Amino acid sequence: AAVPAEEVLVLVEYGFEYRAKDGTLVSIKPNERYVLLKRTNHHWWHVKRSGDARPFYIPAQYVKELPPIA
User: Per the database record, which ranges form the SH3 domain (predicted)?
Assistant: First the structure.
């Protein structure tokens, strides 16, 4: 699936799991890719799965920003 040019993707380098305030289990695994919505701060970035409406936070140090696809 083509990704719109304005979307910035991050690549997960380390697995991480936590329970959000609403009780939802958030789990990321190495090599997964997410759409970066906002670099909220140095510790947490706001992301979403491509095509999924529900955004969530992941630890910034566990992912790396991918260069734009030319």
Answer: 5-68
